[in-house]
TrEMBL record:
Organism, scientific name: Neovison vison
RCK N-terminal domain location: 295-431
Family annotation (InterPro entries): K_chnl_BK_asu, K_chnl_dom, K_chnl_Slo-like, RCK_N
Pfam assignment, any one: Slo-like_RCK
Transmembrane segments: 41-60, 101-123, 135-155, 195-216, 223-242, 248-270
GO cellular component terms, semicolon-separated: plasma membrane
Membrane topology: Multi-pass membrane protein
Keyword Transmembrane helix: yes
Record's catalysed reaction(s): K(+)(in) = K(+)(out)
Compartment(s) of residence: Membrane
Lineage: Eukaryota, Metazoa, Chordata, Craniata, Vertebrata
UniProt keyword annotations, A-Z: Ion channel, Ion transport, Membrane, Potassium, Potassium channel, Potassium transport, Transmembrane, Transmembrane helix, Transport
Listed GO MF terms: intracellular sodium-activated potassium channel activity; outward rectifier potassium channel activity
Protein name: KCNT1 protein
Length: 605
């Protein structure tokens, strides 16, 4: 019973403390992101308004018409350059219209009450820490004198450095940006934040120097705001023409102080900006949203990128003519090593391959890679992984993350061990390395060297390997390794068009004898691919023929010679391959430019 009563007491106290008036105010002004964002936006607007009102007061004020306190007789003042004495009256007193004073007083009262309320809500036991904060001191300097002038009218023309509110506006803007990103649940960019801070610091330095020198020079040559702004720009840019100079020592002292502050503050911020820029360059930055919407790209996700894996992927991917205009965005959590950096600096790849350092498990990095706009995502593993089970676990997690972030992006996953395939069955294509390896070894038992044939067919090669070898078999092996699987519509083919109505076996035998190409299969319209259908199958003009050759039919030397003969006889050369590929886009991406077959929807017979 005692324990239950204690639990009830604790629950009641917690409930009561959360519903006190102070807690409700703290929830509205500080804790709640959206309401806090509105409060900071209102505070930022107030500070900008005070700076604007100060500029209006300067433009309406003319010391030549007389200076003095509110209701006092005005005194005329003329600057004497030969005298070393300073008349402080133009510095202490300004001309402030009644309407302008009333607006400034109202704004000051609102700012003062808001500041005191925030001090009360954020109080944690140390009042001196709150009082001696720079923002609080500036707030008191720019608000309390206006409140005092309500009760003491002669001080209504007293100069108040309201232009210092620009620093409070800068502070409010930084907090407002932070609250904005928290409210929309988006991680802000450190680079954007640093650029914003640097720009605001420069703006505040120039505005403070302009207003300060213009006011102090009221006791000198009475510079205008535009002239004072020109002087600050010339001074901070280290040009220093010398046509405009401060005439009295207070303004000269202010210039020295502003230059010292600029020499201390700006280099530190530039250093931070350069550091962030270098870190961003290492991570690769972001893939352009405009490019993602206007150009096509695929994303390659790997846990560690080695040169052999990179070159294999790029050579196979860009082997297909349809994929030449695609961009490849590499998303890898490790920093790019020297060998990969050298490869990506080659002009062939530097304009088409973009390296981003990041993880597919983070939505922020997937947004950087514009995964939701990608044509496909490839999740690959290195073939030299020591712990293959752990590598599959990482692949599975990345596949889940990508599918959750971009469910409409086609997903191609490489799994090392077959027992892990069912974890990624949602992917569009899953390739298991051990399954393929054991299947080819089994085919070797039925037909020797089958694994070698398939390996050479699916691996893109130019057929130039081993040409320097003294052994004839090595030269022949290397030359024939350049054979690939291509497809062509029979009615458009010069190789197979003459065999229309003939059996598949007859066409395969005579095409190989005449042109040296190997016909291995065909596909009827809206039907599956048939591999070696035998002598019972008759070829039709609408069939798609799959054949093995060193190059595509339209690039063959036989075709070029025939076209040259037609030109000599006066016949116009006809396009051999007028029609585009009728395979769907995901089939072409899956083929990686080698085996032009639909790996998902094909039933081989």
């Amino acid at each position: 019973e005692q324990l239950s009563s204690l639990d009830d007491r604790v629950q009641v106290e917690f409930y009561v403390n959360e519903n006190t008036f102070k807690e409700r105010l703290k929830l509205f002004f500080i804790k709640n992101q959206r309401s806090s964002l509105r409060i900071r936006l209102f505070n930022f607007s107030l500070k900008l308004l005070t700076c604007l009102l100060y500029i209006v007061r300067v433009l309406l004020d003319d010391p030549a018409l007389g200076i003095g306190c509110w209701g006092c007789p005005k005194q005329n003042y003329t600057f004497n350059s030969s005298s070393s004495e300073i008349n402080w009256a133009p510095i202490l007193w300004v001309e402030r219209k009644m309407t302008l004073w009333a607006i400034q007083v109202i704004v000051a009262i609102i700012s003062f009450l808001e500041t005191m309320l925030l001090i009360y809500l954020s109080y944690k036991g140390n009042i001196w820490e709150q009082i001696f904060r720079i923002s609080f001191v500036l707030e008191m300097i720019n608000t309390l004198p206006f409140i005092v002038t309500i009760f003491w009218a002669p001080l209504r023309n007293l100069f108040i450095p309201v232009f210092l509110n620009c620093w409070l506006a800068k502070h409010a803007l930084e907090n407002m940006i932070n609250d904005f990103h928290r409210a929309i649940l988006r991680t802000q960019s450190a680079m954007f934040n640093q650029v914003l801070i640097l720009f605001c610091t420069l703006l505040c330095l120039v505005f403070t120097g302009t207003c300060g020198i213009q006011h102090l020079e009221r006791a000198g040559e009475n510079l205008s705001l535009l002239t004072a702004f020109y002087f600050c720009i010339v001074t901070f840019s280290t040009v220093g023409y010398g046509d405009v100079t401060p005439k009295i020592w207070p303004s000269q002292l202010l210039v020295v102080i502003m230059i010292c502050v600029a020499l201390v503050v700006l280099p530190l911020q530039f250093e931070e900006l350069v550091y962030l820029w270098m870190e961003r360059q290492k991570s690769g930055g972001n893939y352009s949203r405009h490019r993602a919407q206007t150009e096509k790209h695929v994303v390659l996700c790997v846990s560690s990128l080695k040169v052999d894996l990179l070159m294999d992927f790029l050579n196979e991917f860009y082997a297909h003519p349809r994929l030449q205009d695609y961009y490849v965005v590499i998303l890898c959590p490790t920093e790019m090593d020297i060998q990969v950096r050298r490869v990506l600096q080659i002009p062939l790849w530097s304009q088409r391959v973009i390296y981003l350092q990041g993880s597919a498990l983070k939505d922020q990095d997937l947004m950087r890679a514009k995964m939701d706009n990608g044509e496909a995502c490839f999740i690959l593993s290195s073939r030299n992984e020591v712990d293959r089970t752990a590598a599959d676990h990482q692949t599975i997690l990345r596949a889940w993350a990508v599918k959750d972030f971009a469910p409409n992006c086609p997903l191609y996953v490489q799994i090392l061990k077959p027992e892990n395939k069912f974890h990624v069955k949602f992917a569009d294509h899953v390739v298991c390395e051990e399954e393929c390896k054991y299947a080819m070894l089994a085919l070797n038992c039925i037909c020797p060297a089958t694994s070698t044939l398939i390996t050479l067919l699916v691996h893109t090669s130019r057929g130039q390997e081993g040409q320097e070898s003294p052994e004839q078999w090595q030269r022949m092996y290397g030359r024939c390794s350049g054979n690939e699987v291509y497809h062509v519509r029979m009615g458009d083919s010069k190789f197979f068009r003459e065999y229309e109505g003939k059996s598949f076996t007859y066409a395969a035998f005579h095409a190989h004898k005449k042109y040296g190409v190997c016909l291995i299969g065909l596909k009827r319209e809206d039907k599956s691919i048939l591999l070696n259908p035998g002598p019972r199958h008759t070829l039709a003009a609408s069939d798609t023929c799959f054949y093995i050759n060193i190059t595509k039919e339209e690039n063959s030397a036989f075709i070029f010679k025939q076209e040259e003969k037609q030109k000599k006889k006066g016949f116009p050369a006809q396009g051999l391959y007028d029609g585009s590929s009728r395979l769907p886009m995901h089939s072409i991406v899956a083929s990686m430019g080698t085996v032009a077959m639909d790996l998902q929807n094909t039933e081989c017979r």
